[in-house]
Every structure is written in structure tokens, then in C-alpha cells.
Design a protein that fits this description.
This protein has a 9-stranded mixed beta sheet with strand order 1-2-5-13-7-8-11-10-9. A 6-stranded mixed beta sheet has the order 20-21-19-30-24-27. Helix 1 packs antiparallel against helix 2. By secondary structure, it is α+β, with helices and mostly antiparallel strands. The N terminus and C terminus are likely disordered. 42% of the residues are buried. It is built from 7 helices and 30 strands.
């Protein structure tokens, strides 16, 4: 008799004595302390210092270490696990404000292992639903589970992406999936999974946040995703899942109800410092955090040093680390990206650099706040996974126009070799959109560099050459790639010549120039703060 059967007995009126008898046979401790509860058992629930806990693992041999302490505190460590999930919270669950702080997978590489940091719970009658609000994840993005991909039994009626919602200033992708004949709170059953997944997951390491659970319930309802009326438990959970039994990680978390104490990262000139770069989605250096105007500085998590004025965006796609400097340009880790799963390689990349050590793969997009105008877009690719042609094929569109069709990187340049393609595009809605879609296996991208266009004829030639290469032959593509790179370099050089930038050695005799610039910068910041506060 399984643990989920015992939970069913509790909810269907069986006597406490009968349930305790079964629990005793399964070796459950009568104590409620949850330290070490998965050492000799696959399942455990109870209360510890006023918080409900639930810990579960699917296989006997999986090693999952649990330590519990002060109210709302738990610590975990696991290695080479197939499937486990657990955490602390409440029974029943419901529309609470849940705050958390601590660490998640500190010192680990996101692309090397799959795990979730999530608000996790269940509803029962009339609909059995397992739900997640995912704050961070590893090598697999759970928002991709619908439509038959990613999980056993996926692809049920109505499954798939259900849109995007912004809650508390954070953008989440909504997804519905089906699990068929899988472990559940009622034993083995077929049930729905609902996901809200952060578009920009929290980096692994120190974490902190607040989840408005009721807002997610409402967002799911608005998307046609109906929870059951009978809420079972809800916990701030750590989960490890890997079909190859390679999930490993750690967490140390403090959970509380309410908004928690706002995190402060200090002030600059009387203005709050943004703690995380996500507070500044448009990249103008000012943002909103904890309902206050904040300024991005070098203290901001995810901060990227400023680039030359002609650089609109530079993105190290798929990276979860710090900004990477290449050729005097700082590339921000995975900024502006939506969807896809990260992956990296330690292989040497021919003709590449650190940018070509990471990728996103799957179907994904970038939406870059560029303003209106004409821009040069350089995309960097590498085939770091397949070892033969005809294994991967995908399309790329920029501003709604197909620029690469049926791309097969291995056929173009071989494996572990950098491939750069440059295009020119015109933006009229303030945002430059890049969309990658899969034909075979998964689309992939390693870097994005967007510049203000300064030589339309050169860029146009590069763009048309690059576009034609993907639909003709590998040899013409290689030639086009060289042409594109040359054109891009020429454009950059031209831009540098026409806009040399500030010369600190030539102030025209005006020794007050630096102070005037500082005054104007502060005046602009104050004006922006007034405008945002008024809004």
C-alpha cells in the first residue's frame, strides 16, 4: 500500500487508528520533526514548528537529505535522483502571499541538472490538479511540457501554452499539461498540471521573492485552466527531476506568509539601488522595485557595464553567469529572451569565443527595446550537440520577416564551429523581435548583437547575401557568412569614425564640463522618477 493511498484514507473518512496502523507498517515516525524523513522512507508529511511539510521521492535508491529547523526553515541536498519533490507550507493551500529567501542550487551549473524552485500544490474534487509557480529551473523549462513534449503522458486535451501574465512585476508563461497513469495524491492516476514559469528564472545561488498565489489562481482561471475547489497542501518546494537519473542539487530556504521584509540594496544619491536587473526591463538604467523607483548600478544583480552608444543590445544567449566582454562589448546573460532551455559546452569552438559556449534550444524569442529605426542584427550559432548533418533544422524571423529558412548548422560549417549571420531590419513599434522555430530537433542560438545601422547599403548587401545562403548551398552560405562579418566590421568601423565619443583630454577649456554632465544626469533621473511616480 502506497503513501498516497494513506492520504486517500485520511480524506475519505477512514478511522485514525486504521491509518496509524498502516503508517506504522510503513515505518513512519510518530514524531513530527522532518529532519531525515526520506532516509528510510519514500514519503513523509506532518507539521514542524507550525508549518506543514510534504516530502516525496519516487525511487527507493534515491538519496535525498532533509534538515528542518526554525519555523519555515528547511535544507535539502540530493544527488543522481530520478524524481523527488518536497517543501514546507500549509494544508490546506489557498490564495496566500508566500515569501521566501535563502539559496537554491548554490555553486551549481543550471545546464548540468534539472530541478525547480516553485510554489507547489494540489487540488482535488472535482478536478485533480498538480500546480506550480516556478521561480527557477535548470536544464529543462517546464513551460515547454504541453502539446506532447517534455513529460510522460503530455499532450492531453487542451494542453499547451496559455499565454503570458505579469504578476508583481514578473512575467510568467502559463502552460497546461497532462500526466497519464503517474503518481499523484490519489495513488496512480491521470491528472492535469498547471504551470506559471518565470520568463527570466532566478539565477542559481541566493534567491528571494514573494509569490501572490491568488493572482496566479486567477490568471489560470482567465486562461481556462480550472483548479479543483478542494485545496490540498501547498508548499514552497524544491524538486529534482531527470529521466536519466542525473538530477543533483541543494537548497536552503526560509518561508513565511505575507510580503516579507523588502530587500534593500542601498541608495545612490538618495535613489534606491535596484537589487536585480529584472527591475529595469527596458534597459534605461531606471526601474521599479518594491513599489519604489530604483537605479541600476554595479551593485545590481545582473548588472552589465555600459556599451558604446551604437550598441543597442548584446546578449550571451543561454548564459546564467555574469556579463561576458568580447571585442570591447559586454554581452548580458540571456537578457530579453523568452522560452527555450539553456545548455552549455566545454568543447573548444573553432572561430568562436565564450559567447559560443552557451545556447538556448527549443522554440523561443527575443524582444529587444530598441526604439524605432534601422538596425544591424548579428546572430551567432554553433552546433554543439549533433555530429552529423540533417539532424537539426530551424527557421529565424526578424520583425516578422523570415531571414533564415531550414537552417542546418552542421551542414553549413560542421560541429563546434562558430557561424555568424548579419541582417538589417527596420523597427517601427519600438521593439526588435527575433523568433526561432523548430523544424527538426530544436532551434538554437548563442549570441545576439544589435547595432544602430550606419551603412544601409553595406548592411543590405550582407542581409540579402545571408538570407540567400540558407536557401541555396553550403558553399554560398560560407561565403555569405564571411561577407556578413566583413560588412558588420565595416559598419562598426564607420560608426566608430563618425562618433568618436567623449574625449576626457579635450574639454575645450571648460573645466566644469564633468560637473555639468553630472548635474544633467541627476536632473534627468529626477524627471524620470517624477514621471514614473505620477504614472
Amino acid at each position: 500500500m502506497g503513501f498516497h493511498t494513506i492520504k486517500n484514507m485520511l480524506t475519505t473518512g477512514r478511522s485514525l487508528a486504521a491509518v496509524l496502523g498502516v503508517a506504522s507498517a510503513m515505518g513512519f515516525s510518530s514524531a513530527y520533526a522532518c529532519t531525515g524523513v526520506l532516509n528510510n522512507s519514500n514519503n513523509a508529511t506532518g507539521t514542524h514548528n507550525g508549518f506543514y511539510y510534504s516530502f516525496w521521492k519516487q525511487e527507493n535508491g534515491n538519496r535525498v537529505s532533509i534538515t528542518c529547523g526554525e519555523p519555515g526553515y528547511y535544507k535539502t541536498e540530493w544527488s543522481n535522483v530520478f524524481n523527488w519533490v518536497g517543501g514546507m507550507g500549509w494544508n490546506p493551500g489557498g490564495a496566500r502571499m508566500v515569501s521566501y529567501r535563502g539559496s537554491f542550487n548554490s555553486g551549481r551549473n543550471r545546464s548540468s541538472s534539472n530541478s525547480y524552485l516553485a510554489l507547489y500544490g494540489w487540488t482535488r474534487v472535482p478536478t485533480e490538479v498538480e500546480y506550480y509557480v516556478v521561480e527557477s529551473y535548470g536544464s529543462y523549462n517546464p513551460a515547454n511540457c504541453g502539446g506532447g513534449g517534455g513529460v510522460a503522458g503530455g499532450g492531453g486535451n487542451g494542453d499547451g501554452r496559455k499565454g503570458t501574465v505579469t504578476i508583481g512585476g514578473v512575467a510568467y508563461d502559463l502552460t497546461q499539461c497532462t500526466r497519464t497513469n503517474q503518481p499523484s495524491i490519489s495513488g496512480t492516476s491521470t491528472f492535469k498540471q498547471f504551470f506559471s514559469v518565470r520568463q527570466n528564472p532566478l539565477p542559481w545561488g541566493q534567491v528571494q521573492g514573494t509569490i501572490d498565489v491568488g493572482a496566479h489562481f486567477q490568471a489560470w482561471a482567465n486562461a481556462g485552466m480550472r483548479l479543483g475547489n478542494d485545496h490540498f497542501y501547498m508548499v514552497l518546494a524544491t524538486e529534482g527531476y531527470d529521466g536519466n537519473r542525473n538530477s543533483s542539487g541543494n537548497s536552503e530556504l526560509w518561508i513565511s506568509e505575507g510580503t516579507g521584509a523588502p530587500r534593500s540594496c542601498g541608495t545612490t544619491g538618495g535613489v534606491e539601488v535596484c537589487c536585480n536587473i529584472s527591475a529595469d526591463p527596458d534597459g534605461d538604467g531606471m526601474g521599479m522595485e518594491n513599489n519604489k523607483v530604483c537605479m541600476v548600478t554595479e551593485k545590481t544583480e545582473g548588472y552589465t557595464p555600459p556599451n558604446p552608444p551604437e550598441i543597442v543590445a548584446a546578449v550571451n544567449v543561454g548564459s546564467t553567469g555574469s556579463a561576458v566582454q568580447v571585442g570591447g562589448i559586454y554581452y548580458a546573460p540571456n537578457r530579453y529572451m523568452t522560452g527555450g532551455s539553456p545548455h552549455d559546452t566545454s568543447a573548444n569552438i573553432t572561430g568562436g569565443n565564450e559567447l559560443f559556449k552557451t545556447e538556448l534550444y527549443g522554440d523561443f524569442s527575443a524582444s529587444i527595446p530598441s526604439g524605432n529605426g534601422t538596425f544591424s542584427v548579428e546572430l551567432g550559432f554553433v552546433e554543439m550537440y549533433h555530429t552529423s548533418a540533417n539532424s537539426r533544422s530551424f527557421n529565424v524571423a526578424i520583425e516578422g520577416q523570415r531571414v533564415l529558412n531550414n537552417v542546418d548548422i552542421y551542414a553549413e560549417v560542421g560541429g563546434n564551429t562558430a557561424w555568424r549571420q548579419t541582417f538589417e531590419t527596420t523597427v517601427t513599434d519600438g521593439k526588435l523581435d527575433i523568433v526561432l522555430t523548430t523544424n527538426t530537433d530544436a532551434a538554437t542560438l548563442s549570441s545576439i548583437l544589435v547595432r544602430k545601422s550606419t551603412s544601409s547599403s553595406s548592411s543590405s548587401s550582407s542581409s540579402s547575401s545571408s538570407s540567400s545562403s540558407s536557401s541555396t548551398s553550403s558553399s554560398s552560405s560560407s561565403s555569405s557568412s564571411s561577407s556578413s562579418s566583413s560588412s558588420s566590421s565595416s559598419s562598426s568601423s564607420s560608426s566608430g569614425a563618425s562618433d568618436p565619443g567623449p574625449n576626457p583630454g579635450n574639454n575645450g577649456g571648460n573645466t566644469g564640463g564633468s560637473n555639468d554632465g553630472l548635474f544633467l544626469a541627476l536632473l534627468g533621473a529626477l524627471f524620470l522618477m517624477r514621471r514614473r511616480l505620477a504614472a
